[in-house]
Design a protein that fits this description.
The chain is an alpha+beta fold. It is built from 16 helices and 22 strands. 29% of the residues lie in helices and 25% in strands. The longest helix is centred in the middle third of the chain and has 19 residues. Bound molecules: adenosine monophosphate and glycine.
Length: 476
Amino acid sequence: MVIVCAMTVDKVTTPKDSKWPRRVMVVGSGGREHAIVRQLAMNPKVARVYAVPGSDGMSGIEKVECVSLSIASSAFNELLNFASDANVELIVIGPEQPLADGLADVARARGFLVFAPSKEAAKLEASKIHAKELMRAAGVLTARSFVVSSVKETLDAARSFKPPYVLKADGLAAGKGVFIEKTLEGLEESARFLFEEKGLGDAGTQALLEEFSPGIELSHLVLTNGQGFISMPAARDHKRLLDGDEGPNTGGMGVVAPVPMEPGLLDRIERDVIAPVILEIERRGLLYRGVLYFGLMLTDEGPSVLEFNTRFGDPEAQVLMSLLNEAEGPDWLETLAAIADGQLPRLKWHEDRSVACLVLAAEGYPDAPVKGSVIEGLDEDGALAPVPAPEVAAGAASNEVLAARSGESTYVIHAGTRRKDGRFVTNGGRVMNVLAVSDRDMKTAIELAYASAARVSWKGLQVRKDIGRSLLDRLS
Ligand code: AMP
Ligand code: GLY
């Protein structure tokens, strides 16, 4: 599978400059940033990766230095002073908040090469109302919606729709701003939470009431320089907390990729959705050098846009890091640097590789994650502790046996942990990710991931048991 699609083919280039950045700063501290940091640190061209603020789980990686600086907008100058002093040559910004606060603009103004969209472009994620307006201007398929700012407006607007009702807070809400309600009573309660209890603060001052789109959901991420784009392999996220897509929405409970597409679907997505949006971004003169994440619903009418994220998804980034064929094309360092420089490199993706990523969440997630629970099953650096030899010999740990085959590997990524008294403890909602990579098939990747996840435990650990199942059902 080679997915290199550039709308404006003349803009596609292969970087000729062989002097790649040796010192990279990755901003963020979650699973997505751990995956990016890990990938860059494995690259022999990279001398140093500064993770700001990083995490205890990243600090054990060779060549990685975690720098405990604030990434709040009031501290941008201090952050960039550090980057200057450390001779950082490339800055990769992971999370949405510093993008919305304009870190990319401040860093560019100081001469850094930055992989991230500008503040103005990041409004595509930071405001759902703004995003909807751009979708309409681009003429792409998206659910009908109304802007609402009170309980009454919400209930009045709901008369135009059939249940379930989708209410989306306008601003950033860490994956907790979308309410899907089966009844008017439920909708009223969510509207009260936003508009009267101010449950999400300013992020919920306005909202979109949106028509429910039934269909199959897909995360389609592209690398873009704001003029053309490169599709990455499509991923299937699992947004609901519980098996069978039940329970509240979360930031994502697990991802599998690539999702095989029926003939013509990729072309249709690129032609009818991605290209018009990128064209609109170019028409508006937005400075966009990074990832644009299209949350899509494959409906009977065609691919419909649910949302934009102006960054790598979490946990989509975790699987994408392993899907780029770095041996046969530009590696991630070259790719991030080229996009930051406004180029579109020609990438090769692994054709026969499947990756599964499970999210292991804390007790109480998403409402009130319990912190401080001791995590069993990790070594002192936070990697999966080795399985005792007799168990392997007895065949008890099938994952170890499988993992021993070439082309297969499993590992953990830390998302919300910290080290306390020499042990790792839970320190956030999505605590860690267990990944499995298989060059055999998706079924093997999923089995491996579950077998490895079974080696990790803490009180109240939550993990979905059906990650990738719908994909496997479709493939069988
Ligand atoms: P968003 O942040 O807009 O992607 O919404 C979070 C999740 O809510 C999505 O990943 C979907 O699973 C679901 N969702 C959002 N909008 C809709 C819609 N119009 N119809 C059905 N599901 C939706
Ligand atoms: N996994 C969904 C997101 O990153 O927003």
